[in-house]
Amino acid sequence: MATVNVLxxxxxxxxxxxxxxxxxxxxxxxxxxxxxxxxxxxxRVRLSEYDFLIFPGGFLDGDDLGAAQAAAMRWRxxxxxxxxxxxxxxxxxxxxxxxxxxxxxxxxxxxxxGLLPALGGVRFERQVSLGHNDSARYEDxxxxxxxxxxxxxxxxxxxxxxxxxxxxxEGKLVxxxxxxxxxxQAEQLIALQYVDPDTGKPTQEYPLNPNGSILAxxxxxxxxxxxxxxxxxxxxxHHVTNHPAWTRGELDPPGTLLFVNAVRYLRGQ
Amino acid sequence: MLYRMETGPHAGLEDTQGxxxxxxxRRALGLAVGGVRQIKVFTVDGLDAAQVRRLLDEGxxxxxxxxxxxxxxxxxxxxxxxxxxxxxxxxxxxxxxxxNEARTARDTAALVLGxxxxxxxxxxxxxxxxxxxxxxxxxxEQVQALARDLLCNTLIQRFRVKSLExxxxxxxxxxxxxxxTGQANDTVETVPLxxxxxxxxxxxxxxxxxxxxxxxxxxxxxxxxxxxEIARRTALALPADPTDVEMEVLAQTWSEHCxxxxxxxRIDYVDEDTGRHENVDNLYKTCIRDATAILRQRMGxxxxxxxxxxxxxxxxxxINGYDACIKVETHNSPSALDPYGGALxxxxxxxxxxxxxxxxxxxxxxxxxxCFASPFYDKALPPRLLHPRRVLEGVREGVEHGGNKSGIxxxxxxxxxxxxxxxxxxxxxxxxxxxxxxxxxxxxxEKKARVDDVIVMTGGRIGKDGIHGATFSSxxxxxxxxxxxVQIGDPITQRKMYDFILRARxxxxxxxxxxxxxxxxxxxxxxxxxxxxxxxxxxxxxxxxYDGLRPWEILLSEAQERMTLAVPPDKLAQFMELAxxxxxxxxxxxxFTASGFFEARYGERVVASLPMRFMHDGxxxxxxxxxxxxxxxxxxxxxxxxxxxxxxxxxxRRMLGRLNICSKEYIIRQYDHEVRGxxxxxxxxxxxxxxxxxxxxxxxxxxxxxxxxxxHGICPKFSDYDTYWMMANAMDEAVxxxxxxxxxxxxxxxxxxxxxxxxxxxxxxxxxxxxxxQLVRACKALRQFSLAYGLPCISGKDSMKNDYTGGxxxxxxxxxxxxxxxxxxxxxxxxxxxDFKREGEHIYLLGGTWREMAGSExxxxxxxxxxxxxxxxxxxxxxRYRAINALMGQxxxxxxxxxxxxxxAVALAEMCIGGRLGAEVDLDAVPALEDMSRTELLYSxxxxxxxxxxxxxxxxxxEALGQWQICRRIGTVAGDGHLTLxxxxxxxxxxxxxxxxxAFKRTLDW
Lengths: 269, 1006
Prior knowledge:
The structure holds two protein chains of two kinds. In chain A, about 25% of the residues lie in helices and about 25% in strands. Chain A is α/β, with parallel strands linked by helices. Chain A has a domain at about 5-130 and about 170-180 and about 220-265: 3-Layer(aba) Sandwich (Rossmann fold), CATH 3.40.50.880. Chain A starts with a strand and ends with a helix. The relative contact order of chain A is 0.17. By secondary structure, chain B is α+β, with helices and mostly antiparallel strands. Chain B has a seven-stranded mixed β-sheet with strand order 19-21-17-22-20-23-24, sandwiched between helices. Chain B has a seven-stranded mixed β-sheet with strand order 37-39-36-40-38-41-42, sandwiched between helices. In chain B, helix 1 crosses helix 4 (about 140-150). The chains are: A alpha/beta, B alpha+beta. At the A-B interface, helix 1, helix 3, strand 5 and strand 6 of A face helix 1, helix 3, helix 14, helix 16 and strand 26 of B.
């Protein structure tokens, strides 16, 4: 069986790296290393040593210029100490069939880097963005998510309805144009939607849909199914006591499941 | 040449930010506006036209999917796209004010263009395009007023206004750079102390914001006229009189903020009620430090305190090779002037305390408590004061940005309202950290700089920000308070430094660390030099944001996001290399010595040489007078006669809507309370996650089920009656809250934060002696209940001049103590919440109810003053808390909630709200310890009471407890969705829980 080594990137305002790495370990990863972005730039750590790359949540550069915008520019324009553009490393990583997960600020980064949704397999071109919540507020609240069984996404395969928190101010999906939105639907790239737990149906109703995202989009896959980005925080629900009503005996499937699917997929490679 | 780039939402997309601004204008100022569109403006200096064009074309500063951008003013809406704006307001920062987004824009542009960061400057501004409401068009005066009152704080920002007509004649605003134009300045002046008489000394102290009194000035003068000292100074080419650098260092080191002179004073205390005279020599030592020492001795081998009062935060033992530490600070004066910047700086500032404790802690959570006047205040505002709603919003947002962007969860907090906080809002910010018990073979909670260690400053650069913060906060607020006291924090620069520090710590690259807070380098280096007995520091090496600072200003600046470290010479290269790699600025400024002197140079020239002993121990003890006379308050009966069940229900709804009781969900939701993944008890609990939690619980080590509980008590409402009981109630409330969520009452550590009104008598402060007596009494209670509960204080802070004078008015805050507790929970799965869980649970009340209505929410709602203030009986309360804790450990308790603001009725209602369940309660069963009216029974705020519910099959556990404690079943959780209170067979109160929810949420449903 293949080993699964997970790289969780931190630095410049990332703040959910510890629990993300912890959840990856709980999900059965052989190793989950938290690595500072500067160590990639210094070529002290190489992406190629890993199988699963996670961009965790945080406040990259304090959301200045818009969430993850400045970080996207670092990835786009920097070369490592060996002279290789960072984007080349990302491209190589994906060409080897490996997995990328972006959570919250990490999802914003993937979108702004053009790794999601990558319609037509075009990478590194921005096709959608994530704008301010309709409420014009940052909010921390738990939501319910329904995976799209038709999606190519390997992370959400066979998963039930999930519960986990959102903690963001810029999570409303804004596609480049109508055509882009149509293709997201047609190609089943909408991997996760905000749903009303009572009906199990996607909803635009606040606060069940916390940001007013069009088509209740909470997470996107790329056409390969090997890149997932989502606004909610699966790593924030890895222990029974994370659940906001655990003292009432309420229990939903934990966010760890997304990580378990990823590890299982890589083991099967 | 200056270039401007304007970025704004695409014409077809909704402008969420603009809509929010329009809503604020309507709600906060009551102005009719048609709509607002918001544009971000970047002004750049140091690039050529082609470079700026590239930034635009490649979408470096904007998001082409969401935004349009232009080097010309963004076009007005085309016909059919909506109305043209009637007014244009552009708000930008004043020179020298921290502009975080501009820094990110500069760094990003430099990276993309491949030019050095220092070769360009960027300034940001926000342009508001305001459309009139046709029914009530805005006048220019109104637009200027709304710019001043809402869009901009003229202390740190400036604005320009154009009407549509003016815009059409001359579109756009001219580029404007907020550049500080200063020349490098090495001027050091001599302060002719030896030639000053008393009047001149006091005048100099006032004019220079030294905040030194005559005794202290005399002490300093004596030091500098000592012949041996003159000879020593002459040899260093220093004048006999102090340099301005030396005077500023002394004023800062001796400030109330740093030396706590009032707590250290010798106080002549007279109790006029008993005629007793007492000499109190140092309140801090006798009431706080000694109580902790006694408790630690009592605990012997089981002492869980590791480091108390000496370091930046107090440290206790946690579990699995970790210790935990906590620090709580206030940031009141800056928050009064600029609520956003003040509060932001408050939270990122207190983060640096645990970061600089021992060898440096990992930060695990924040706690915030704010005291404001009513946001619905509708009278005229005294000069210079901001409207409480604006203060609330600014503080809320400052802490939101400070906490969220730093990635530290806000797990606990409170809002307290009293009209007197109009004069000075209180902003308490606390941070908890964990430190490995051993780091590279050394205890993690200890630190010590060694001789020859290099003084290294890391983090942000130095500007004029916050100069005189330490001395300014030791003064009352007045109309001429300095704007330099205001700073804006930069959470990301700090986060980068924090990531670096933890790594350097684990590599063993330094021996000691402390933060640069009040007093800046002067304070941090001065303190660390105490480890070795001296230092030599070169001010000229300090990195500056801009030229123009004089040497003393560099030394005293409180520019944020800086830590000072003691790095061994053989580790310096590795330390600096790591810092550079992680994009963190670090500068070696000098080294620690054993010379006995704090020596500062500017280049080769010695500009300060102060004996360490004089600097740290030379401040003369204050001698103060305190006179206590209990206020003459009548006994009152609080009784509403003739109310039927509906009338009682209506009053309960009014109580639930009171500012001190109502739901704070609006604020809580905007704080990240679960980042780091260890959240156990969140601030909002229950079936629909909108019931109030009593305290926060978290699991800081994800591999372990051990937890920390964070709770607090604060009851300034009792201060007008007796601060002794105010303190006792605050401590009891903190313990009670901790116990309510599963905390062990025998494993708690306390943090006391005093915010007082000026307790030193003077002609303009005629009741100073009474205020000091109030302080003495609060401290006596602190000692008494610290010992009685076995609750050691491990850290604390005081803020003493929370008064305002202006427009002929003086406003003093009510004496306020925030008492926070930090405790260990061995297994977090034993924690519990306040919401009723299931129909049929039995409801018990633990603890007796007295007729204690003084200061209560109900008395205030009814406009009554008087009565008895709640007393605390630790001898019965502690066994009760222990018993509940033992039951929590068996998971026998279904819900537990403390009775505090609003008493029994409000606590019951909150448990119903949390569980969305009803309750049926027999008031005749409530253990009342004296004759009282029904209103008093329902709303008395007697201390030490807990309401619990329990599964019927386990109820015998509480029945057994009732054999030796006041613990009585008063009712049953009901499935009918109603709270029903009965007396005998008659229904006293009956209300739909959904109505209670509405009343609870309506007040602050913004």
